[in-house]
Amino acid sequence: MITPFLPSDPGAPATPALYDIVDSPVGRLLLTGDEQALTGLYMLDAGSHSATVQPGWTRRSGGFGVAAAQLDEYFAGSRKEFDLPLAPRGTPFQLSVWEELARIPFGVTMSYGEVAAALGKSLLASRAVGLANGRNPISIILPCHRVIGADGSLTGYGWGLDRKEWLLRHEGVLGAWDAAGARAGSAAAQPTLW
């Protein structure tokens, strides 16, 4: 991520004014924001975890053209970093976690404990990092899918572990995996991904 977060306008409404829906290999993506920045990227086809368009939002077809183009490039394999104005809303701690997510490079994973340490927190903050990671409003672009368990397990992902696995495979982090989540040809139950 090249650009820092834009400051949230305290007088702005809590919900985004504009949205659009774009297709992707992991399902339809709901983009939300305003005239200045992207405030959300959610998955619509994620079963019980699916996002929904809220009353009062205005659809702006093609209104997130730069974001959609960068996502297309990411899914095509030609983009490894996003350069978009982002304005996620959250607590100061959540914002610090999301800023740290933006620093995790394409094709690299970190554990929750490593994210906590990068923030200058103790390993005990791993759980709080996990909670903030789960509240990330701009998935894929703020790559919460790159955060894994200390033992190398994929752990949870709000949009489904199948999507997390797909994104990590797309980034070249995961090799061949069997149905039990172990690296094919290995007796290890949990892989080391970094």
Description:
With 194 residues, the protein is of the alpha/beta class. Helix content is 26%, strand content 11%. It has helices spanning 65-76, 92-103, 112-118, 126-134, 161-170; strands spanning 18-22, 29-33, 38-43, 58-59, 110-111, 147-148. The longest helix is centred in the middle third of the chain and has 12 residues, at 65-76. Residues 176-194 have low confidence and may be disordered.
SSE blueprint:
Elements: E1 18-22, E2 29-33, E3 38-43, E4 58-59, H1 65-76, H2 92-103, E5 110-111, H3 112-118, H4 126-134, E6 147-148, H5 161-170
Parallel strand pairs: 1-4, 5-6
Antiparallel strand pairs: 1-2, 2-3
Tell me the helix content: 25-40%
Please give the number of β-strands: 6
What does the main sheet amount to? 4 strands, mixed
Structural class: alpha/beta
Shape: globular
Written as H for each helix and E for each strand, in order along the chain, the element string is EEEEHHEHHEH
Strand arrangement across the biggest beta sheet: 3-2-1-4
